[in-house]
Amino acid sequence: MRYLCLSLVILVSLVGVTWAQTPGGSLTVAILGEPPVLDPTASTSMEIARVFYDNVLQGLVKFNVKGEIIPALAESWKISPGGLTYTFALRQNVKFHDGSAFTAQDVLFKFERARDAKSGHMHPAYYRDITKIETPNATTVVFRLKQPNSEFMMNLARPESIIGPKNRVEEQKTHPIGTGPFKFVAWERGVGIRLEKFGQYYVRGRPYLDRVTFRFVPDQGAQLAALRAGDLDVLGVGVIPENALFVQQDANLKLITGTTTTEITVGMNNARPPFDDVRVRRAMQYAVNKDELVRAVMMGFGTKIGSHRSPGEWCYVDLSGMYLPDAARARALLSEAGYGPDNPLSFTFTLAAPYPYERRIGEAISAQLARVGVRARIEVVEWATWLSRVFRGADYQMTIIGHSEPNDIGIYANPDYYFRYNNTRFQETFSEYQRINDTKRACDLMKDLQRMLAEDAVNVWVMNGPYVSALRRNVMGWWTDQPTPSMNVTEVYLQR
């Protein structure tokens, strides 16, 4: 009888697993902001990547939940000993969502456009070392580089490197066509984005779900109410701390907390007064109390940082103690720069409306700056306005936003980036880091880059943003960490 009971337990357990992963069903996910377009090669908005990366649009390779680079549209690849030739073997019999065949010509078109600085493709610098792209047959692509680039594979895994059908650039902005497990169905402006299972996906048995809807719900109170009522299944990103506590107390819900590569960054325009003066920028560092922000504003969620790198990333160096809170030191630096009680420092602090972490932290920082006599006038703008005016136009003095892309310290080597940081030594060091074949030396250079940014007080790096999402109990397979911005639903299923 004992062995019979044990056998029945095993049988029930196995049946339970089968039932739990029965395909089908619909999932509704809340996101905070509406993307300006739907093509990650046309805008750097992370909302695009969160919805479309690997769900709809894929590249040759991709990041998995551990941040590892794994095959996507390429089955395998070889790198020549000198690091100048990358040969990719493409998957065969892959279809785009419009039914057309994916071939090497689509790859050729994509990367010829990507490396053309006049094409409108985001971040052509990622591909500038490509000198030639060869397609000896329909399933092979060869990249030839002018010099070694230690970040080439990383760049091919980024959202900007997704591949669509050749010659369909404009269409991708509003009706993206990819090769992923889900196909795009509709973009209801101001409401959400709808995806459906792609029946010809090249991985058998994936995805599990039939439909996924990403709804734009910027109000955190409305998000939580809809989740508890069953109108939403997942709050995908940016759950505020007090809502996280409510979720933990609800038996029908569960909370996921994990790591990200997000640096919550107080950006200062280094080319515009008052932040073209390093003394003012350093004063900001001493005036901001990061421990207080993590404890009081974020209720302990988040880890303070001191440069543009997250603790989980390769060759991170902890510089969070470089500028400890010191009001007297902040006032002295401001005085050296010509500011004081009779001439207080005053500027506009621009916050993006959809993002609660950044808005709350920004408001708290404004109060901290007031303690040293600084007047930071808060201005809240819509996301589209922030992208056009702050990010693209650098028309701002101070702002705050989360930089979510992994290994993105190279943005500081671009003097036209919205921080307007122009340091030749940094640019040369970053270039050396990219070309080095010695892992230890490359790590040392990466640490030097982090220290250089901190010494120049380019920005105030507040904390590594936590990944906090809330789900209904029956939602399984959701990513617990965010090594790249992606609400990957390929293996998400509803427990029966």
Brief synopsis:
The protein is of the alpha+beta class.
Query: Care to count the β-strands?
Result: 21
Strand order of the largest sheet: 8-9-10-1-11-19-12
Strand-residue fraction?
A: 15-25%
Tell me the overall shape: globular
- Output the radius of gyration: 24 Å
**CATH fold field value of the largest domain:** Dipeptide-binding Protein, domain 3
Biggest sheet character: 7 strands, mixed
Number of helices: 14
Structural class: alpha+beta
Written overview of the protein:
The protein is α+β, with helices and mostly antiparallel strands. The chain folds into three domains: 23-56 and 180-259 and 466-496, 3-Layer(aba) Sandwich (D-Maltodextrin-Binding Protein, domain 2); 58-166, Dipeptide-binding Protein, Domain 1 (Dipeptide-binding Protein, domain 1), CATH 3.90.76; 263-464, Roll (Dipeptide-binding Protein, domain 3), CATH 3.10.105. 30% of the residues lie in helices and 22% in strands. The chain has 14 helices and 21 strands. The strands form five sheets. A seven-stranded mixed beta sheet has the order 8-9-10-1-11-19-12. A hairpin with a 5-residue loop joins strand 2 (61-63) and strand 3. The protein is globular. It starts with a helix and ends with a strand.
Task: Kindly list the characteristics that best describe this protein.
single chain, 496 residues, alpha+beta, D-Maltodextrin-Binding Protein, domain 2, Dipeptide-binding Protein, domain 1, Dipeptide-binding Protein, domain 3, 3 domains, seven-stranded mixed beta sheet, six-stranded mixed beta sheet, 14 helices, 21 strands, 30% helix
